[in-house]
Amino acid sequence: MEEALNSTIDPACLQEPPLAIDVIKQLDLFGLCLYSMLTFMSCISLLLYLEQCVYIYKKLPYPKKSTIIWINGAAPVIATMACFGMWIPRAVMFTDMTSNCYFAVVVYKVLVLMIEEFGGSDVFLKRFSGETFKISTGPCCCCCLCLPRVPMSRRMFFLLKMGALQYAILKTVLTVLAIILWTNGNFDLSDLEITGTAIWINPFIGVLTIISLWPLAIVFMNTNSHLRSLNIVPKYAMYQLILVLSQLQTSIINILALDGTITCAPPFSSQARGSMLSQQMMIMEMFIITLITRFLYRRTYDTLPSEAHDNDHNARALVEHDV
Fold first, then answer.
1. Vertex 311 angle, CA 306 and 313, to 5°
2. For the stretch 135-158, what's the b/e string if a residue is b when 16 or more beta carbons lie within 10 angstroms of its beta carbon?
């Protein structure tokens, strides 16, 4: 029966993703216009980012400028890699892994940015030392409201930074390991057997991702009231949106392709077609995010007031309220 079923399937649906030249040959007028438009959008995203880098390098002091350059590059880098993956389907695994490794560094850089907005690690510790931080935040403990508040200390600060940094390091290491195993035929995303390496590596990366997002959520939830004048909320929202689109959306599409919900369309197999749709959606989404982040980070913000100024302002407001 299995042989009969296989005989009804187009042989192209069981093959590897097509070569770039095969993709170009099968494009009709609509497909050519679509690919050209998406390529144009990814090029514009990259050019806008390069121009933004020059602006940031000239206008902002070190080390904040390097941090912001890293964060601003998330959407353009993902869009550029998606464009390569769209034109060269057999390179999708490499382009996706490159994007994911870059974004793993961005996760850590977002935490560094929030700290640098206060003046750096020493100023952050001086300002919040002894204050209790709420740790019942997502994605790990948003439902654990009974968790006690933890006082900020140098040890707590170190753990928060290490929690975000481990993802940038281990994600890169596991990506290199996956590529090495793939060259030997031991790593296949479609192999969901318990003996396959993908079924072990990918869930472990998921756990590392959740662990790395927790420190960012803790710092953001406890300090965003001080940083609202710097538009930290929309900046954090853009980072979260990139996370959802580049990780969750791609995973959902891949699952639908493996399940057969996304059908085969020769010369693309179900999995290759799912990857192609994911790349095309990613280019459009990252183009829009590039425009928004350009607006957010190109604005000039006033220097964050000191703790003494905040206390004086709060005391004055309290006196006026009492009067």
1. 95
2. bbbeebbeeeeeeeeeebeeebbe
Please, which residues have CB within 8 angstroms of residue 244's CB and are 6 or more apart in sequence? none
Structure tokens at 231: 């538009």
Asked whether the beta carbons of 74 and 102 are under 8 A apart, the reply is yes
Give the whole-angstrom CA distance, residue 78 versus residue 250.
12
Outline where 224-269 has alpha helix (H): 232-243, 250-259
pLDDT in tens, the chain (323 residues): 444 444 456 666 667 788 888 888 888 899 899 999 999 999 999 999 999 999 888 888 787 888 899 999 999 999 999 999 999 988 888 898 899 899 999 999 999 999 988 888 888 888 888 788 888 777 766 666 667 788 888 888 899 899 899 999 999 999 889 888 888 878 777 777 777 787 888 888 888 888 888 889 888 888 888 888 888 888 889 989 998 888 888 888 888 887 778 887 777 888 888 888 999 999 999 999 999 998 888 766 555 665 545 545 444 433 333 33
Distance CA 94, CA 286 (A): 18
Q: Supply the pTM of this predicted model.
A: 0.85
SS3 132: strand
Extract long-range pairs of 95-101: CB within 8 Å, 24+ residues apart: 95/279, 96/250, 97/175, 97/178, 97/179, 99/246, 100/171, 100/175, 100/246, 100/247, 101/171, 101/172, 101/175
- Residue partners of 286: CB distance under 8 A and separation at least 6: 42, 45, 75, 76, 78, 79, 82, 242, 245
